[in-house]
Amino acid sequence: MLRFAVDAMGGDNAPQCVVDGVLQALKEAENRFEILLIGQEDKVKPLLDGQDTTNLNLTFMHAPEVVTMHDVPAIAVKTKQESSLVQGLKICKAGGADAFVSAGNTGAQMAASLFVLGRLPGVLRPTIAAYFPRLQDGLTNVVDVGANVDCKPEHLVQFAEMLTIYQRDAANIEKPLTGLLNIGEEENKGSELLKQTYKQLQEADSKKKINFIGNIEGNDILREKATIVVCDGLVGNTMLKFGESIPRFLASIFKPSIQQLVDSGKLDPEAAAITSKAFMDMFQPFDVEKFGGVPFLGVDGISIVGHGRSSARAIKNMIYMAEHMIEKKVNQHIAEALSDQ
Amino acid sequence: MLRFAVDAMGGDNAPQCVVDGVLQALKEAENRFEILLIGQEDKVKPLLDGQDTTNLNLTFMHAPEVVTMHDVPAIAVKTKQESSLVQGLKICKAGGADAFVSAGNTGAQMAASLFVLGRLPGVLRPTIAAYFPRLQDGLTNVVDVGANVDCKPEHLVQFAEMLTIYQRDAANIEKPLTGLLNIGEEENKGSELLKQTYKQLQEADSKKKINFIGNIEGNDILREKATIVVCDGLVGNTMLKFGESIPRFLASIFKPSIQQLVDSGKLDPEAAAITSKAFMDMFQPFDVEKFGGVPFLGVDGISIVGHGRSSARAIKNMIYMAEHMIEKKVNQHIAEALSDQ
């Protein structure tokens, strides 16, 4: 039976949302896996005590330290060895769990995962991708979104290769399409780095490692031209955060204008409520919770990284994601593909 | 009297929208400047013939060649010397006009401007900024958005300096605030390039050349933390195009859902129409037409670059922008600031 170590202390709404998410997962999945919940006893136990956990495959483990959102990653990993983050990963490394799940400090989780789990054979740099909104079936993953900000062409090519395997194995996308984010479509566009990357992506395509569709631009992402958008971590991180800020920005314009229409008698309150719901529903493709989190791809183990704002539902879906990655042997396939180069 | 050379052939809706924009500008401004309209006689003249231009300060000049949106910039500039683009800039250089305005091929306009006009003293690399949506007063300029994709720290610092002068002189912003786009707020974040840039921006701040507020992230742009967002051209270009694609993406979700509410009798058609208008109005902060275009900052002359989709109103506003930059001596101030370093 698979066993997942879950960081009870990670996330803005932790430990409550983590406890809720773990219980939901175990109940919904009817105990088909075990959960090792790790965190500070005085914070987590009271939340568990109020619940009926007698028939659930749930174990609690005390970890006295906590890595916070404000901790500097490299320092936190060294100085907080007794944290749920470091302990959870160490248990994975020792074989006591098959995957680690956290919605805590992303930088610290990446640093600790790399330090404790190490890299898969052949992987130059583990990477983190994000899910971008999509109307049609499939996925749009932008990679990298902040783990690597000084990428060389060979790093970007490996990101494409890892995501191709991930999408094919874990998301059932038959033919993942890789686009290189650039300032124009033509082959000779962009910096020297991008021109070199273009050539190496072509080579990877000719070896059937990826399906390369060429350069794409910022406005091609929501047009769903590619399922994998490759870029340096600064570009991906900026676009991700910029995109995340848009719903609130637009709502701050739309909501008052609807309210004004109601106040002035031009729109009846019922119609306004219906409209406002349609407006909020419009942002459903921006809902990252259905995925839960993203794997830190390329490390020798499974480490699922969640958004700090994760809800119980997101935590639950992160656990499912971990399970799915193990069943589909994503890491094994990445190691096979990248170690023979 | 100021004289502006306007490219009649530039833009998706050229020459019609250019002719309309020029006539609107001259009428609205009551002939306080002259316009030299340049383009292919057989395309432009018929449009002018239908109009009463007797009392307007308008001169037409024939240019047999046209630089299209599909031309490769460097090649177009060399091979199409008789185009409205190259001719217009040459007339500026020779003193026959005070500024050049075009909504044509941006890359070609930048290449031709640099080639024909040259750089202002002290300027390492001319740059192009974009206007980002803003709710409060002021401007949010992201710089660079595609003119420079391999920036060194000293280039990024100069972009901040030029934009500071531009915003202060031409947009009446008393204290422009510069933020460095990064993956996190802390000083030690990001690539080596960004760390170096951070230091040099601090130095420029201590010399009172700019007001540096530190690192900002993608989600800080719409929060209006900075009036000047400094980044490499790939990042800026990607974010600009990504942002431009969002209204259509959201409308493709919202409009059918409103229609469905009407069809199912849950929303009456009148309320739907009012709501749809509020929805479209929500994108007004995304309307770049009020600015018209952006100056190619750092060249020894005024070259205003418009969006390919420019309307007559945009063309008109680009002419006003050129006028304003000359009156406020923006170029003179940039040369003074950058040549004493």
TrEMBL record, chains A, B:
This enzyme's EC code(s): 2.3.1.274
Major location category of this protein: cytoplasm
Keyword annotations: Cytoplasm, Lipid biosynthesis, Lipid metabolism, Phospholipid biosynthesis, Phospholipid metabolism, Transferase
GO MF term (any one): phosphate:acyl-[acyl carrier protein] acyltransferase activity
Reactions catalysed: a fatty acyl-[ACP] + phosphate = an acyl phosphate + holo-[ACP]
The keyword Transferase is annotated on this UniProt entry: yes
Annotated TM spans: none
One Pfam family matching this protein: FA_synthesis
InterPro entries membership: FA_synthesis, Phospholipid_synth_PlsX-like
A single BP term in Gene Ontology: fatty acid biosynthetic process
Matching Gene3D superfamilies: Isopropylmalate Dehydrogenase
Coiled coil: none
UniProt pathway annotation: Lipid metabolism; phospholipid metabolism
NCBIfam families: plsX (TIGR00182)
General function of this protein: Catalyzes the reversible formation of acyl-phosphate (acyl-PO(4)) from acyl-[acyl-carrier-protein] (acyl-ACP). This enzyme utilizes acyl-ACP as fatty acyl donor, but not acyl-CoA.
Family: Belongs to the PlsX family.
Subunit structure: Homodimer. Probably interacts with PlsY.
Full protein name: Phosphate acyltransferase
Gene for this chain: plsX
